[in-house]
Write a structure and sequence with these properties.
The structure holds 2 protein chains of 2 kinds. By secondary structure, chain A is an all-alpha fold. Chain A has 16 helices and 3 strands. Chain B has a domain of about 80 residues. The chains are: A mainly alpha, B mainly alpha. Chain B: Pfam families: PPTA.
């Protein structure tokens, strides 16, 4: 087999076009447009393709229109706020990383939104009147930490709720009782890492579960035991290994490798490069499936994880194929480039943490009514 | 027929989407899509609570069932207009059958069931969805919610056994097995634990390379101690001859590790290290990095104390020397 090649130019053209125009087959993602921004921008940053300043500014202005007057971001202009597009919008703005981008985020209102979806048991609903699952804790923790609006009270009881999602398999389900699943396991674990509580998990059981999700023939990862491989799990599953490595290190584990993650990095790169690329650009689940921006983002993110071991101090690369296959490293908690994480933290930590209005679900209309009544 | 051409809608001014002057991720909506959503935005702006609004939400949903803003609005209308919730159950049943992998449809069904306080159709409905995709995560989530909320535990173990007969490799069903037992009898009683261990071993004999069965076996024993179950290690060593698999070998490592925790013996450690080596180099090479880590970890934790003392070296110092500190 010849050395596999990352089809950089083709992926670049696919992404460049999608950032501006999408066919009507994307009507099903009309309530996820900040996601489209994030998936495309993150893919471009992994490919180390610069975002032209005009485009970046247009993204900022669009995301500003997706921001809800009551805080948080919605799937499109005029829609209600939802934690998933909120996560995506904040990440996209941090990738852009300009003052204009950071200034789009109304931090005070964002905090109000997070309070409005917080539940008494420590969990979060995805949107007002919406469903609970562990994705919400990750989305909330991610945006709160990046924009410096995190307070201990906001995440009170959240770690213990997340912990209840770890099951007999060692991985995490979407809510307590459910089957362990790569996407939810990533969200729960990354949320706990942000909150500094990852040691509360049974890390050894989690490690055994996630390494067992790498398919011995395909080289890629499955999302759940006894299911099929899917390119997107290259990130959700493989991305857990850097998180666990760090967690074990913090616990004083002395036997960790100094060169490799605890998964077969080469096999994952082979799966992605040989089986998950569309020759016309874009990446996909498995051969025979259609390309899409979600799979493009997460296949490339997984490829980056598989290529780069270590952190700022210790870095070891394993690039399968040509040196030109090398992607930029990605931060395993936020899944944007580490420099953008650092830059955002630096920017927002200069600002004071907003005072929250903690009356859960209190609307501004209600407050105005009450004060008027008293006067 | 477009809404913009309907007489009964002439009083309402459609609201086009405000994407701004230089849109990004701009979707090339069909004429129908734009028309319906222009009118949806108009209704939302007015907060109109009418039957025509209710009817339009169904069209908006059909065009994009993931639009959670539309679903929320539909629920507001259901309550404001005192709509027939039985009819809504029929509606949501059809929608889920068409689009079973969508978050919003299942959440909507849950809300309607809660409002009606009537779970009587749920188990049969979910069983039907599972008959089409036995691993649908939303379906299992809804099922667990219904069972727990309305205490419908009685026939679920039977349902689990039926599905395991159909596909013993369905991991979602093994999870459901654990869900039911842990919330009913629990695993504390020796009778139940033994029944479950025997059940696993029987399934393993029939399908030795079924990871789910091995994971379940470990899952139910790990908190009590793998070596706590008498004769199990011997049974597994027997199975190793005729029904070997990477999962069996991993289970062996776990048994040895558990034994070491209670009684640190050089012979047990050596066996554990040997199996790790065998897995890393031959039987489970995709997980080589992990098995080698586990091997080093076991060696470091269970290094024979008296051997080290004989050598006059403290165990901690020896570990440091090994790690090049």
């Amino acid at each position: 087999l010849p050395r596999p090649t990352l089809l950089r130019e083709q992926h670049y053209q696919y992404l460049k076009k999608g950032l501006r125009h999408l066919s009507d087959s994307y009507e099903c993602l009309d309530a996820s447009r900040p996601w489209l921004c994030y998936w495309i921008l993150h893919s471009l940053e992994l490919l180390e393709e610069p975002i032209p300043a005009a485009v970046a500014s247009d993204v900022c202005q669009f995301l500003a229109r997706c921001q809800s007057p009551t805080g948080g971001f919605a799937g499109g202009p005029g829609q209600h706020a939802h934690l998933a597009p909120t996560y995506a919008a904040v990440n996209a703005l941090c990738i852009i990383g300009t003052e204009e981008a950071y200034n789009v985020i109304d931090r005070e209102k964002l905090l109000d939104f997070l309070w409005s979806v917080k539940q008494p048991d420590g969990s979060f609903v995805m949107h007002v009147g919406g469903e609970v699952d562990v994705r919400s804790a990750y989305c909330a923790a991610s945006v709160a930490s990046l924009t410096n609006i995190l307070t201990p009270k906001l995440f009170e009881d959240t770690p213990s709720w997340i912990l209840r999602c770890q099951n007999w398999e060692g991985g995490l389900g979407g809510v307590p009782g459910l089957e362990a699943h790569g996407g939810y396991t990533f969200c729960g674990t990354a949320a706990l890492v942000i909150l500094g509580k990852e040691h509360m998990l049974d890390l050894k059981a989690l490690l055994r579960w996630v390494v067992s999700r790498q398919m011995r023939f395909e080289g890629g990862f499955q999302g759940r035991c006894n299911k099929l491989v899917d390119g997107c799990y290259s990130f959700w599953q493989a991305g857990l290994l850097p998180l666990l490595h760090r967690a074990f290190f913090k616990e004083g584990e002395s036997q960790l490798s100094r060169q490799r993650w605890m998964f077969e990095q080469q096999a994952l790169q082979e799966y992605i490069l040989l089986c998950c690329q569309n020759p016309a650009g874009g990446l996909l689940d498995k051969p025979g499936k259609s390309r899409d921006f979600y799979h493009t983002c997460y296949c490339l993110s997984g490829l980056s994880i598989a290529q780069h071991f270590g952190n700022v101090d210790l870095h070891h690369e394993l690039i399968l194929g040509k040196e030109e296959n090398r992607l930029a490293p990605t931060h395993p908690v936020y899944n944007i480039c580490p420099e953008k994480v650092a830059q955002a933290l630096q920017h927002f930590h200069q600002l004071p943490v907003p005072e929250a209005d903690q009356r859960h679900g209190a609307s501004t209309d209600m407050r105005a009514g009450v004060t008027a009544g008293i006067a | 027929m477009f809404y913009r051409d309907r007489k009964e809608w002439a009083d309402l001014e459609p609201v086009p989407q405000d994407d701004g002057p230089n849109p990004v991720v701009k979707i090339a909506y069909s004429e129908k899509f734009s028309d319906v959503y222009d009118y949806f935005r108009a209704l939302l702006k007015k907060d109109e609570r009418s039957d025509r609004a209710f009817a339009l939400t169904a069209e908006a949903i059909e065009l994009n069932a993931a639009n959670y803003t539309v679903w929320h609005y539909r629920r507001v209308l259901l309550q404001a207009l005192q709509k027939d919730l039985r009819e809504e159950m029929r509606y949501i049943t059809d929608i889920i059958e068409e689009q079973p992998k969508n978050y919003q449809v299942w959440h909507h069904r849950r809300m309607v069931v809660e409002w009606l306080n009537d779970p009587s159709e749920e188990l049969e409905f979910i069983a039907d969805i599972l008959s089409q995709d036995a691993k649908n995560y939303h379906a299992w989530q809804h099922r667990q919610w219904v069972i727990q909320e309305y205490k419908l535990w009685d026939n679920e173990l039977e349902f689990v056994e039926k599905l395991l007969e159909e596909d013993v490799r369905n991991n979602s069903v093994w999870n459901q097995r654990h869900f039911v037992i842990s919330h009913t009898t629990g695993y504390s009683s020796p009778a139940i634990l033994d029944r479950e261990v025997q059940y696993c071993l029987n399934q393993i004999r029939k399908a030795p390379h079924n990871e789910s069965a091995w994971n379940y076996l470990k899952g139910i024993l790990q908190d009590r101690g793998m070596s706590s179950h008498p004769g199990l290690l011997e049974q597994v060593l027997e199975l190793k001859e005729t029904h070997c698999s990477p999962y069996l070998l991993a289970f062996l490592v776990d048994c040895y590790e558990d034994a070491l925790e209670n009684n640190n013996q050089k012979e047990t450690l050596n066996r554990a290290l040997e199996v790790c080596e065998y897995l890393a180099q031959e039987k489970d090479t995709i997980r080589k990095e992990y098995w080698l880590f586990l091997q080093r970890s076991l060696e470091s934790r269970f290094e024979c104390i008296d051997v080290l003392l004989c050598q006059g070296i403290s165990p901690l110092l020896k570990s440091d020397i090994k790690n090049g500190v």
